[in-house]
Design goal:
Strand order of the largest sheet: 5-2-1-6-7-11-10
CATH topology of the largest domain: Rossmann fold
Order of helices and strands: EHEEEEEHHEHEHEEEHHHHHHHHHH
Mean pLDDT: 89
CATH architecture of the largest domain: 3-Layer(aba) Sandwich
Low-confidence stretches: none
Helix content: 40-55%
Largest sheet: 7 strands, mixed
CATH class of the largest domain: Alpha Beta
Strand content: 5-15%
Oligomer: single chain
CATH superfamily of the largest domain: Class I glutamine amidotransferase (GATase) domain
Length: 326
């Protein structure tokens, strides 16, 4: 029997508690239907018996307080909502327990923005992690010692698991189910819950908004210039001259402020503009390519797929209703 502790932290997302509970309960039914013993003992574990979520809209009754919960084989840390620093402070004692259980042999998995709580334990220091693409910049600011894997749906490092944004956690749950049972059971669960079992990238869903939560006014000026002139050929030397900074110092400051090189930032701004055009217009690939400053079809296709995980045609067909109708 595998003991699975689903945490019920303060400020957590209700669905990220209910969904894994439902999945592992159904997995037990699948196993029983095939003549095998039920494998999972699922417990909701928290710091108190009743936890109010969504500003009191829901009350969740825990099965165990963390001090007397069965020794877990796997701990699931659900997504948290709202102010992340506040959520970290409110759940400090619970996360101390998680860290102790990991050191005693348990595996730990964070779902979506639950990565903020998992990171607060210190267990991820020097390791890799995934989280919702919306919160990547905030996560990096809070935890610069952790390597965020951009676009990943699942990241695994030394018995610590994390998932990408929102429904990506279903892919992590299926991954864990396959690990504890077998591929057939995971496939059955994926069909039951209508989840694409092998999706491994959230890049197609990400919207690049530019990393502007910094105080370097010179770099902000350059970012705004790039975003206003995406059709033009822009060189690093030209940008450095605009703010009267030597090239080497400019590149260093830009990377420090945005977590992208200058070239990466230009590419991401251009591809984001291309994505919006594919989503909302009837323009063909070449028209969009020229519109965002590319003249080489192969280069545009390669960079677009690198950033989004899809080719330009695949992206247009996926997100443009007019293209789908045609």
């Amino acid at each position: 029997m595998k003991n699975i502790a689903i945490l019920v932290p303060e400020a957590s997302v209700m669905q990220a508690i209910a969904d894994p509970q439902y999945l592992f309960a159904m997995a037990n039914e699948f196993l029983a239907a095939s003549g095998r013993p039920r494998l999972f003992n699922v417990q909701l574990v928290g710091a108190k018996e009743l936890v109010a979520l969504n500003e009191g809209s829901y009350l969740v009754r825990t099965d165990s307080l963390y001090g007397n919960a069965p020794k877990p084989d796997l701990i699931l840390v659900p997504a948290v909502f709202g102010d992340k620093k506040r959520a970290i402070a409110e759940n400090a004692k619970l996360m101390e327990w998680v860290a102790a259980q990991y050191l005693a042999g348990a595996e730990v998995a964070s779902l979506c923005a639950g990565a903020f709580l998992l990171a607060s334990t210190g267990l991820l220091d020097g390791r890799k992690c995934s989280t919702h693409w919306v919160f990547v910049n905030e996560f990096r600011e809070l935890y610069p010692e952790i390597e965020v894997v951009d676009g990943a749906v699942i990241t695994e490092d030394s018995g610590l698991y994390s998932s990408g944004g929102a429904n990506s956690y279903w892919n992590l749950l299926l991954h864990l189910l396959e690990k504890y049972t077998d591929r057939d059971t995971a496939i059955l669960a994926s069909k039951y819950f209508a989840i694409d079992i092998d999706r491994d990238n959230q890049s197609a869903f990400a919207m690049f908004q530019g990393q502007k939560g910094h105080n370097d006014t010179a770099i902000l000026k350059v970012q705004e210039y790039i975003e206003s002139n995406i059709k033009d050929k822009i060189s690093v030397d030209e940008l450095a001259d605009k703010v009267s900074i030597g090239r080497r110092s400019f590149e260093r400051r830009f990377k420090q402020a945005t977590n992208n090189s200058v070239l990466e930032y230009i590419q991401r701004v251009r591809i984001e503009s291309a994505k919006r055009s594919f989503e909302s217009s009837r323009k063909n690939i070449s028209e969009v390519m020229y519109e965002v400053g590319y003249t080489d079809t192969k280069a545009f296709r390669t960079i677009f797929k690198k950033i989004t995980g899809l080719t330009p045609i695949e992206y247009r067909n996926k997100y443009n209703k007019m293209a789908q109708a045609a």
